[in-house]
Amino acid sequence: MSATDLVLRFVYPNNPNADFRTVNVHQIVEGADGPVELYKFHHPNTGFMTGVTSFQRKNAETHIWENAGQIEWSSNTSGAVYFGVERISIRELRKMKKPSSKSRRFRVNNSEYKWKIAENGTDLICVSDNLTNRGKMIAQWTQETLILRVAERAEGFLDRVVVTCFLNLWFKRLNLW
Predict the structure, then answer these.
(1) What is the pLDDT of residues 107-135, one digit of tens each?
(2) 110 phi and psi, to 5 degrees?
(3) Is the pLDDT of residue 36 over 70?
(4) Are 106 and 129 in contact (CB under 8 A)?
(5) Alpha carbons 148 and 115: distance in angstroms, whole number
(6) Confidence at 69, pLDDT banded by 50, 70, 90
(7) Residue 155: how many CB atoms within 10 A of its CB?
(8) Percent of the chain with pLDDT over 90
(9) How far apart are CA 28 and CA 8, in angstroms?
(10) Fewest CB atoms within 10 Å of the CB: 29, 70, 83, 170?
(11) CA distance 112 to 159
(12) Hey, which residues does 177 pair with through a beta bridge?
């Protein structure tokens, strides 16, 4: 990863009763007074595993929160993600190549990427799985610091990277990698 990466810190509520699917994502900008809010994920604490997790992105120009999408949970482990009007099943955003696969794949346009658990067993790595860029890292999650580093070349599909990281963290927390 390089100095031009986006550095994103996941900030979970201090409330022990808050749903783990509620989190704010702040961008750490070198030289700034503090972190810059970038995403908000909110899942109401209803006591049910179903429901809707909404996610918003802060417009960098207007500083206004805009709806980026939502996750409609039909159970703890299934549902659909809406990126604007585009609907994709959670299964498609965490696809296995084969039943024994240790990675979870997702597609953006005609490119495929995969998240995998790092050698330390707690961190996550996202790499390109295309013929021309196979194995090039586009994102890295560090559990100890709750930091997601995203390569500059992935900015065009940042929502997809952040949401798939969010989903994989949820499944990992449930011991359902």
Answers:
(1) 998 899 999 999 999 999 999 987 667 77
(2) -105, 15
(3) yes
(4) no
(5) 12
(6) very high
(7) 12
(8) 75
(9) 6
(10) 29
(11) 15
(12) none
The kind and range of the H/E element at 171 are helix 158-173
Q: What pLDDT is stored for residue 131 in this prediction?
A: 63
Sign of CA dihedral 34, 65, 124, 156: negative
Rounded distance between C-alpha atoms, residue 112 and residue 30, angstroms = 31
Residue type, 16: P
User: DSSP alpha helices (H): ranges in 78-152?
Assistant: 90-93
- For residue 147, pLDDT over 90 is answered with yes
Closest Cα partner for 93 from 157, 23, 19?
157
CA 177 vs. chain centroid, Å, equals 15
Q: What 8-state DSSP symbol labels residue 95?
A: B
CB–CB of 105/92 below 8 Å? no
Tokens matching residue 84: 């604007």
Distance CA 153, CA 128 (A): 11
Residue 134 confidence (pLDDT)? 76
